[in-house]
Amino acid sequence: LSPKELLDFVFKRIKLYDPKINSFITLTEEYAYKVAESLRFDEMDSKPLWGIPVAIKDNMCFRGFKTTCSSKILENFIPIYTSTAVQRLIDAGAIIVGKTNLDEFAMGSSTENSAFFTTSNPWDLERVPGGSSGGSASAVAARFVPVATGSDTGGSIRQPASFCGVVGFKPTYGTVSRYGLVAFASSLDQIGPFGIKVKDVELAFRVMSGKDDMDSTSHPYKFIPVDKSIKEYKVGVIKELYEAEGFDAEVLNSLSNVIKLLKSENIYVDVCSLPHLKYSLPVYYLVATSEASSNLARFDGVRYGLRVKGKDINETFSKTRGQGFGSEVKRRIMLGTYALSSGYYDAYYLKASKVRTLIVNDFEKAFREYDFLICPTSPTTAFKKGDKTSDPLSMYLSDIATIPVNLAGLPGISIPSGCDNKGLPIGLQIIGKPFNDNELLNFADQLE
Ligand code: GLN
C-alpha cells in the first residue's frame, strides 16, 4: 500500500461517514496528497511515522490552514507558523489529513461548546464523544485515522478517549512543547496523542516529546524504552474516586474486573487514599478560569481574528469579544477575572494554589508506595447530547477523575476496559509518576 493509496482510503471513509459523525472542521486533502507524493521510500526507516495519516485538534497551529479553536473569534484565523508538536509529527513522516472539532477553546467535556457543530460518538450517534478533544477521539474511533492529537487541561484527551473506546495519553507536564497550542490554562495544558492501541500513542509521543527552545516550560525529556514485566509493579486503587458519588455501577464493575485480573496475575494491588482529591474540582475551576481569563485577553479585535468595529477602541474591544466568544468561554473569563481581582486574589486564587500543593503532596506520598494508581477515567459512559448543556456543574463533574492528574502535572492514560449494557465503551485511567511516562506506557501496553 502506498501513502497515496492509503489516503484514498482515508478520504473516502471520511466523506462517507463524517457527515454523520462530524469529527473534522477542516480537511487538508490537497496538502496531504502533495506530501504523499513527496515521501521517499528510502526515508522509511528513518521516519517512524512515514505515510501515517494523522488528525490534529483545531487548537494547534498548522501553517497555512485555519486554526479556529471552534470559536467564532478565530473562525478565519490562519496561523503563519506550525506548532512544534505538529511539526515533529510531520518531520517524522506523518501526513496531516485535517483539523478536528473541539469545545470552544477546549472548554468543555462534550464538544457541544463548539461554535460550529457538535461531534457525534461513533458508537451511538445520539451521544457525545466527550471533550474537549471530541473530534480527534471520534476520528480515531471511526477509524478515519490511526493517530490524532489532543490537548488535555483537565481531562480533554482521556475523557473523550474513554467515551469513544480508544487510547488517550496525557504525558507529564512539559514533556511536549506547547508552542503553537492556543493557550487555555498554561500551568495545566498538555498536548498528547490518541491512538487505537497503546503502541500507537507511544510512537506519537516519542516523536512529539523533548525540549523546545520556543517553550520555556518544555523539558529535555528523552523516551527510553523499558522492558519490565507487569508483575514487577505495585498498583494502588484510588479510594476517593472509587467511593465517590456519581460513578455508574457498570463503570465500577469494570474497575473491579481489572482489579481481579491484576490479582489473578499475582500483581500487588491495594486501595490507597488521597484525602485532598475531593478539592480538585473547585481548585481546578479557580486555577483554570484565572489562567484562561488572562490568556484570552489577547483576543482584542486588533491582533487576531474577528474584529467588530465600534465607535472607539473600547467599543470595538467589547463588541468583538461579545460576539466572538460563546457563553461557556464568557462564563470562564468572568469567573477568572473575579478570582484574580484585587481583594479576592488571596481568598480564591492563592488559596486554590495552596490546596493544589496538598494534592501534589498526596500523589507524592502515594507514589512512595505504588508505581501506578488506577481509577475509572470518567464516572459515566458517553451521555446523550443535550443532557448536560443546561447545567454546567454536572458537565464539570465528568472530569472529576482526570482533573487531579493535571493539577499535579502527572502522566495519565485512558485505555478501553470493556463496555456497559448499552455497548458503550468504558475507560480505565492509569496514572504514573512524573517523567515516568515510558514505564506507564509499558504497563498500559501489557494490561491492554
Ligand atoms: N472539561 C474540562 C474543562 O472544561 C477540561 C477541558 C480540557 O482538558 N481542555 O475545563
Fold and architecture overview:
This protein has 448 residues and is α/β, with parallel strands linked by helices. Helix content is 38%, strand content 13%. The protein has 15 helices and 11 strands. It has helices at 3-21, 29-38, 84-91, 134-141, 158-164, 198-208, 239-243, 249-264, 280-295, 313-324, 327-340, 346-369, 392-396, 403-407, 437-447; strands at residues 24-27, 53-57, 95-100, 147-151, 167-170, 191-195, 234-238, 268-272, 372-376, 412-419, 425-431. Strands 1-3-2-4-6-5-10-11-9-7-8 form an 11-stranded mixed sheet, sandwiched between helices. Strand 2 (53-57), helix 3 and strand 3 (95-100) form a beta-alpha-beta unit. The chain is globular and about 70 Å long. The protein starts with a helix and ends with a helix. Its EC number is 6.3.5.7. This is Glutamyl-tRNA(Gln) amidotransferase subunit A.
